[in-house]
């Protein structure tokens, strides 16, 4: 079955610390796509990154970086020098085809990140 | 600005009442989705629609209904048959392809009076 596991329910760090959010997935597809979303207190989910299964290059965007490892079915997210504005719930998601050309997202349970000043 | 608009932001339902949550998008996306978010459970798919006048049940469709009369609009009705409707509801739209992200609205928080 398709599944996404985010084992860390809550993480609390002090500003400027680095923090890694873990994501482990299960899929029977040979080609698949993974996503990270941020949900600030306002509630909207903000798309952060997409990764396809055939590209294992790690990606960096400013203070954010993502480590995709097919061998361990993991897609971890690291925030370097965390800031208070990074406080949010972060979701990892796996895209699954559900009929025709349409996909649905299978979400992990999310990790609440609290960055203390 | 392009985006997804959900209304209202907060909604209260009385016993036996149906309520409708609005979702409008101006991103010209074909596919639209409704998700339910409960504490500690992530998001679960209620209904989705690939094109106008067509929609399909998701994983937790019981007690909900939808319509898709226009490309831009995908309202969700929470019926009295939904016995535990208190949750945060998120509408999303996308190009409908497996490699494309979905874009989300700000959500509607529904509570029981």
Query: Segments of chain A where pLDDT lies below 50 for 5+ residues?
Result: none
- % residues in beta strands of chain A: over 45%
Q: What is the first-to-last residue Cα distance of chain B?
A: 35 Å
* Outline of chain B: globular
Q: Averaging pLDDT over every residue of chain A, what do you get?
A: 92
Biggest interface: A-B, 30 and 29 residues
Helix content of chain A: under 10%
Q: How many β-strands of chain B, per DSSP?
A: 11
Mean pLDDT of chain B: 92
What overall geometry of chain A do the principal axes of the alpha carbons give? globular
Distance between the termini of chain A: 41 Å
Main β-sheet description of chain B = 7 strands, mixed
Structural class of chain A: mainly beta
What pattern of helices and strands is seen along the backbone of chain B? EEEEEEEEEEE
Q: Major beta sheet of chain A, specifics?
A: 6 strands, mixed
Number of helical segments of chain B?
A: 0
| Rg of chain B (CA only) | 13 Å
């Amino acid at each position: 079955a398709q599944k996404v596991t985010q084992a860390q329910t809550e993480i609390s760090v002090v500003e400027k610390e680095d923090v890694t959010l873990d994501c482990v997935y299960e899929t029977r597809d040979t080609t698949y796509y993974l996503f990270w979303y941020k949900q600030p207190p306002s509630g909207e989910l903000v798309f952060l990154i997409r990764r396809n299964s055939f590209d294992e290059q790690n990606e960096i965007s400013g203070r954010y970086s993502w480590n995709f490892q097919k061998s361990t079915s993991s897609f971890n997210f690291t925030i370097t020098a965390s800031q208070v504005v990074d406080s949010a719930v972060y979701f990892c998601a796996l895209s699954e085809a559900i009929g025709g050309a349409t996909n649905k997202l299978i979400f992990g349970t999310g990790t609440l990140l609290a960055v203390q000043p | 600005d392009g985006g997804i608009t959900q209304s209202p932001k907060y909604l209260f339902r009385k016993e036996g009442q149906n309520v409708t949550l609005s979702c409008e998008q101006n991103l010209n996306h074909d596919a639209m989705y409704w998700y339910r978010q409960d504490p500690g459970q992530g998001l679960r798919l209620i209904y989705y629609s690939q094109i106008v006048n067509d929609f399909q049940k998701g994983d937790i469709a019981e007690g909900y209904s939808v319509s898709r009369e226009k490309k831009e609009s995908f309202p969700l009705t929470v019926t009295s048959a939904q016995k535990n409707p208190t949750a945060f509801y998120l509408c999303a739209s996308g190009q409908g392809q497996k490699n494309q992200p979905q874009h989300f609205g700000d959500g509607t928080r529904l509570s029981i009076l």
